[in-house]
Amino acid sequence: VVVHSPVESLTETHTHNSVNLSWINPVPTHLEGIIIKQDGEEIVELSNTTNTYEILDLMPETTYLFEVLTKFTDGVIETPAGEVENVVVEAEPDRVNLSWDLPESENFQHVNIYRDATKIFETNGTYFNDLTVVPQKTYEYKLTTMSDTNIESSGVTKVVEIPLPPPPIVEGGEFEKDEETGDYTFRWTAPTTGKVEIYVGGNLYATVNAADLQIVIPADDMKFTLLGDPDVKMKAIDEYGQGGEVIKPPSTDGGTGGAIDVVEVPFSPVDLLTTGVGLFAL
After folding, report:
1. How far apart are CA 154 and CA 142, in angstroms?
2. Which residue numbers delimit the Fibronectin type-III domain (predicted)?
């Protein structure tokens, strides 16, 4: 059985009028020689041990296309399908979107997608979405092409860092007073991961797991605003240490703060008026 393989690690150096190509040959068991093409035309056939070649007398400021192909004892000349082009990588906190243009070669079969040297997908399409990424991690993606004779190209590599998600915000829920004990229970529906900091009277009172979805504040610890609202605020902290906005706990009507009629006000409107007048008099 003749195993057909392309050259590897093809590199080039150039001057104003020359190009030097170098590469690594496959195992020479069935390798007959190396063929070099310039702009689609064969310019030389080399021995199966040659791994470098210099092209001279080129025109300055001119673009050339060179191909280094392997020729085997059964007469097969292996030609890679060419590389994908115009690769675009877009990173989001929970995904990476890759897109590209396919080569126009007739022997193209499909694209192999590698992440950190591990193959994760293959497709003959022009995009792929990786939904298994983690924020703050860096990934290396390589896209190679496979020919219809199973020759894989060297590939195009892209490195991307996954951004953090937006800071979390406490959402949903309600608060209520236990009429027997005077304790207050504050609930939320999100977040369910990370931590939630509870502030009472402007000071940090407790830090609880967000998954608890509630906290009970004893009557003796409760503080109130001038208008009789429970003086309680919350701040969500995600698993990456990001803190969201400090907000008032949601009320039973779905608002962003507790209304006075949701809980029992600890003093009457007359007391409020008297207090206000007293403050004004000062």
Report:
1. 9
2. 3-94
